[in-house]
UniProtKB/TrEMBL annotation:
Pfam families: Glyoxalase (PF00903)
Ranges where the VOC domain occurs: 9-126
Lineage: Bacteria, Bacillati, Cyanobacteriota, Cyanophyceae, Gomontiellales
PROSITE patterns for the chain: VOC
Listed name of the protein: Glyoxalase
CDD domains: VOC_like
Organism: Chamaesiphon polymorphus CCALA 037
InterPro entries: Glyas_Bleomycin-R_OHBP_Dase (IPR029068), Glyas_Fos-R_dOase_dom (IPR004360), VOC_core (IPR037523)
Taxonomy, superkingdom: Bacteria
Length: 149
């Protein structure tokens, strides 16, 4: 049987997080986002060389920062059934709020949190399909004719 070039269940793009505190991040993702740890490989010193977790239908890879691969905080966007509920779970799991849940002009109810390793997680539930034209109109209404930075 031929090996698939993209492993079963993976997508073309898979985020890879390098953090100080990989174990802490895995615990947070498990508690906050119901992540399932798929596998873990360790360096000889016991630190995480590579781990894979699955959140919903998506995989995230991660590892402990090392001198040759420094920590690199990132932002990840999650679409979920209930943004408010997941936002609350993330806070209970130790995240810091960066934006409370609110309805956005582009059709999502969105919130943001920062985990203990410095990553930002945008949590959203899509509530309304909004055309590109309507988004432009809403931007003009909200922000006037000012150019967005």
């Amino acid at each position: 049987m031929a090996v698939k070039p993209i492993p079963e269940g993976y997508r073309t793009v898979t985020p890879y997080l390098i953090v100080q505190g990989a174990e802490t991040l895995i615990e947070f993702l498990t508690q906050a986002f119901a992540a399932t740890e798929i596998r873990r490989a360790l360096h000889l010193d016991g630190s995480i060389m590579n781990a894979e977790v699955k959140i919903g239908d998506s995989f995230i890879m991660l590892s402990e920062a090392r001198p040759e691969f420094e920590a690199m905080p990132t932002m990840i966007h999650l679409y979920v059934e209930n943004a408010d509920e997941l936002y609350d779970r993330a806070l209970q799991a130790g995240a810091t709020s960066i934006m409370e849940p609110r309805d956005e002009f582009y059709g999502d109810r969105a919130a943001g949190v920062k985990d203990a390793t410095g990553n930002y997680w945008w949590i959203a539930t899509h509530q309304e399909d909004v055309s590109a034209t309507e988004i432009e109109e809403r931007i003009k209404t909200l922000f006037g004719n000012k150019e967005l930075v």
